[in-house]
Amino acid sequence: MKKSTTNAAFYVPYGLWLALFVVAPVLLIIYQSFFDISGHFTLGNYATYFQSGTYILMTINSVVYAFIITAVTLLISYPTAYLLHYAKHKQLWLLLIILPTWINLLLKAYAFIGIFSQDGGVNGFLGMFGIAPKQFLFTDFSFILVASYIEIPFMILPIFNGIEELDQGYVNASRDLGAKGWQTFTRVILPLTMNGVKAGVQAVFIPSLSLFMLTRLIGGNRVITLGTAIEEHFLVTMNWGMGSTIGVVLIIAMFLIMFLTGERKRKGGRA
Amino acid sequence: MKKWKWSNLYLIFVFILLYVPIFYLVGYSFSAGDSMSNFHGFTWQHYLDLFADTRMIQIVVDTLLLALLSSLIATIIGTMGALAIHRTSRPVIKNTVLSMNNILMVSPDVIIGASFLIFFTALKIPLGFLSVLMSHIAFSIPIVVLMVLPKLKEMRQSMLDAARDLGSTTTQVLTHIIMPFITPGILSGFFMAFTYSLDDFAVTFFVTGNGFQTLAVEIYARARQGISLEINALSGVMFIFALLLVIGYYFIQQGAQTRKAKHKGGETL
User: Fold this and answer.
1) Residue A256, C-beta contacts closer than 8 angstroms, at least 6 positions apart
2) In this structure, are B163 and B109 located in the same domain?
3) B48 lies in a domain?
4) What digits encode the pLDDT tens for the residues B148-187?
5) Which domain holds residue B109?
6) Which residues, 6+ apart, have CB-to-CB distance to A99 below 8 Å?
């Protein structure tokens, strides 16, 4: 009896948090999406979203960018995580992978402004080979590169955990039974570490849909993602209704991705 | 033997990739010029500027204070939440609460920021330190829960039963048995909450008013105006700070592991 009362007491602050900061904001953003800029109830925001073409185009654009970023990150991260698993001192290596994630995101973006600028590091390097300075900053290329750079550790960690969980016995068995290195990889290692890959994709794809700071600083407003559109509507044009509508779209996209990749936690991979 | 070499080469390549921007940034903090191009000779000037910039110092202090306060409160609420979830026996409720707990973990920052902004405006809570603090507490709670729960699961029921059989009250069981056992989880949770708060830009950007700035928001504002090597100096300081944090976290983890090892050793004896 006493147990249940203390339990209830423990639930009070936590339950309050759940209600106020998890449930209420989601409901509010859905509610807000049905109001126009002057506060009248309307379905117009959704009509605009689906009919104007620009919003649909922007959404597709955003998904394509997120897809490219995720693919690039995955391509670099999988081999890294795999090699890391067999490396000596892997705890130390792992720590070195985690360290850059503790540097503020803004500072990393700022570093790339320097590296990509007209007289920055990359152009200086190219200059040594006699190549004339090129415009790197404010291009799609730089946006994808910087976004991938930022997301790499978040991809490596879940994949690394997946590979760590893999029973080495299966790999040995596969080799003993005559599988070639490549066969072992595609038939045994990759399927068994798929959960890690899914977790990594989830950890990278969802934030990539909503990056808004990078599109400003690195993409130079040429790249508009769902995140940029939301920020624009909320903080610049003050059209909260439209912003919320895009927010609802983003939330639906998020659940879709979580459904496709199976439920896994995101930032937890950082530990 | 050959394979080993190639693999190491790839790893080293990835690490160079990861660290070049950071070292580029920190390297130019010692350059006498005023842009991130052509190193102009060594100087401490930008660090001196940084420490003389009272606005920046104030923002750094505010950011640290915010991180400390929000992670402390989030740790308390999160730990209570974890205890409550752990004691919930009905799987349906437990799973529902856990999924709800994870919503903020997977939500994009913009959504959290925008929905909190609507929330604060609806409740007429003024935007500023208070709204930022509440937001940081809110998005840090789930990670604390996720760090504490596994520790609670590790705990053996027989230990609690033994304590009760020997006449401990519920409070005594909690303070003398459960709390010491889950302390490593609580510490990890606190640590993660602290770094989440320090790292956050998007949510703060949405819910802060004119009066209150965190470091990330300030850097964003300055970076949009162009390059100032004072920010490079700041990143140098922050790199050292992050290094210390990582080392600290490493030792917390290691400590937890040796404790676990000792525990297991004790069992076999």
Assistant:
1) none
2) yes
3) no
4) 998 888 888 888 888 888 888 888 888 888 888 898 889 8
5) 54-268
6) B242, B243, B246
Contact predicate A240/A180, CB 8 Å: no
CA nearest neighbour of B159 among B133, B142, B181: B181
* CA-wise closest residue to A192 among A152, A156, A159, A157: A159
Residues A158/A199, Cβ–Cβ less than 8 Å: yes
Specify the CATH number for the domain of residue B102: 1.10.3720.10
Decide: helix, strand or coil at residue B131.
helix
Same-domain status, B111 and B239 = yes
Residues of B in contact with A265 (CB under 8 A): 102, 105-106, 146
Neighbours of A4 (CB within 10 A): 9
- Each residue of B32-85: pLDDT tens digit? 877 777 777 788 888 988 888 888 899 989 999 999 999 999 999 999 999 999
- For residue B242, give the chain A residue with the closest CA: A102
Q: Give counts: helices (H), strands (E), chain B.
A: 12, 0
Using the predicted structure, report yes or no on whether residue B86 has a pLDDT greater than 60.
Answer: yes
- How far is A18 from B104, CA to CA, in rounded Å? 10
Calculate mean pLDDT across residues B213-241: 86
Where do the domains of chain A lie, and which CATH numbers do they carry? 1-32 (no CATH), 44-270 (1.10.3720.10)
Q: What integer pLDDT is reported at residue B265 of this predicted model?
A: 47
ipTM of the complex: 0.83
Residue carrying structure tokens 């606005």: B55
B36 and B150 belong to one structural domain = no
Inter-chain residue contact A114 with B37, CB threshold 8 Å: yes
Chain B positions touching A243 (Cβ under 8 A) are 114
* Contact between chains at A87 and B243 (C-beta distance less than 8 A): no
Amino acid at residue number B10: Y
Contact A11/B81, CB-based, under 8 Å?
yes
Q: Is this structure's pTM higher than 0.90? A: no
Chain B hits for A80, Cβ within 8 Å: 10-11, 14
Residues 6+ apart with CB under 8 A from B123: none
Q: What share of chain B is helix, strand, coil (3-state, %, to 5)?
A: 80, 0, 15
pLDDT band, very low/low/confident/very high, at B261 (cuts 50, 70, 90): low
| Percent share of chain B, pLDDT over 90 | 28
Residue B130: the pLDDT is: 93
Given a cut of 70, the residues of chain A with pLDDT beneath it are 1-7, 262-271
**Residue listed under structure tokens 């693999």:** B7
Q: Do residue B34 and residue B59 come from a single domain?
A: no
CB contact (8 A) between residue A95 and residue B250: yes
Terminal C-alpha separation, chain B: 42
Q: How many domains does chain B have?
A: 2
AA identity, residue A4: S
